[in-house]
Amino acid sequence: MADSAAFTTTESFNNKRFDSMGDTPEGAAILSFHSLRFKVQVGSVFKKRDKTILRDVSGIFEPGLNVIMGPTGSGKTSLLDLLAKRKDATGLEGVILLNGQPLPNDFQLMSGYVVQDDVVMGTLTVKENLQFAANLRIRNATKTMKEERVTELLHDLGLVKCQDTKVGTDLIKGVSGGERKRCNIGIELVTKPPVLFLGFGFEIGVISLLRELTVQGNRTIVFSIHQPRFSIYRLFDRLHLLSCFGQTVYHGSAEEAVSYFGTLGLVCETYNNPPDFFLDVILEHSDPSQVSVSTADSIIDEESKRVFIEKNPMDESRKNLPALFIESSENKALLTLCAEIMERSTERENDRKLGYATNWFQQLFYVSQRSLKNLKRNPQCSIVPLGSMVILGVLVGVLYLDLDYDLNGFQNLYGALFFVAIQMLFGNVAALEAFIAGRNLFLHESANGFYRVSAYFVATLVCDLLPLRTVPTIVFGTIFYWMVGLESDFAKFVFFHLTNIVTTMCACSLAFLISVSTGVYAAAQAIISVAFVVMMLFAGLILNISSMPTALQWLQYISIPRYCLAVHASAQIADLEFCGIKTVTLSNGSEVSDYLCVSGKEELRMQDIDYGRKFEWLNLGILFAYTCLFFAFTYFALCSVKKKK
What we know:
By secondary structure, this protein is α/β, with parallel strands linked by helices. It is 49% helix and 13% strand. The chain has 24 helices and twelve strands. Strands 6-7-8-3-9-10 form a six-stranded mixed beta sheet, with helices on both faces. Strands 2-1-4-5 form a four-stranded antiparallel beta sheet. The protein has a two-stranded antiparallel ribbon with strand order 11-12.
């Protein structure tokens, strides 16, 4: 731990350099925040009110280990996210400066942020995850340099023994929880960021390692932690304590915090853990009557305040800790330093954006490579869709094996083709998972500048549609085509597959749009199930379109299986003739039999289906247009997904 306090004299601060972080990424980073007030809107849609999370919070975080502590709901996570520029700044007042200048627009690309939830690809090994981050985030480096950086991180984080072990998923046994956390830290440290934010605590070994990194690399590390044990707390340099209502209770040297509370008559017992003591004191002396309430600034409403005071009557022993800190010499010294920083602060001129470390094609390559590895190591994801298509293809093929083209042949063949169209729809519901399963990983990586949204979008489409959708569709179509006994014409066989693939793409594009828009698998599944059922009803087999209510007939034009069925029926039925003996019972009870032939064209006219090559390509063109439209909407929806908290 540092031998001297962080905020002792103004001169010590004057000697700090105020270089732009973009110009000296390896230099010291001093993060200061001045009179921060942060509000959010809570309540129902029709009755919203402002709730203040942070109230006039100021502080300075210098190179070293800085920790934000406070009770649950004190706003420590909000403060951390605001400093890291990972939270929507709507409702924020005050100034956050980096080396005396406003935070650059691409501050996320310069800093590291380790979130509480693990955001790492579980099917990749520890080393592969670090290599992925190095390949996409390290600038102007050769392959050898990137490999050396990964090797260095593996040694520094103590991950050498498990470097070739998969991180692990629900189905794959992987590394331990501590090793998983260290892997997350390594991904953020791969660029040697001057500022590192951590949204949770770690084991003492990791904290000790991070402390060494602050000394070696002159890094500023900021934690948000609830109640660490003493062996971890003693390694911290600076401490920022928040009250239950988002006010500063203490900001300064972590080593001198106990002494500060002692001057207030709040003595920490010899064997008491200081973090436990701080939280006990804050909770014991917490009182909403100490917080001013107005109509524009309602941290709590007046009724809640009145009830709290009635249940917890104020006594003389209860201290107003935020007010006492405001009057303290520690706060006066802090405000003096903050004032000097504000006086020196200047607008960030010619804010040079770092941009992405790699070009679009490199991003596409590395993201696709990772996706294919994930697919290969998740065989159930590829085997199950293929296996289900094989089973359904054989089952349907057996039911319609070598169809006879008698008078009942049209109904049987038309029904079989209808099943194909419906299978292209419902057989691709699993496409919902493509953008939902990796949603958290995408949000974290895109916010941290790993890759462009467009590169991720194209990589996901290629790695999902080709192996998981197109291949099973071709296998199913091949089995169905020859078992049912459709026309032995190679051109028609290829056209049959083309129609199925385009229909599959259209169904998947709609599934992608719904999954990205909702973000929740259960909701997406409910919506797409309703959509597919409606499309099935208006496909033209269950009920003839001309028999439907006029007000609902327009729904046929948004029915994906209707276009697919129309193409298949025109290609496979129009040139056929269905012949057989038809028996008619006369009014006198006698029966008359005759040999009849009905052309496929006549049957299609009765079903209101246009036939001919022109209409086949027209229907395919409509499906293709829908596919492009859904893909475009999906991309825009993906770009608009909120990446900040």
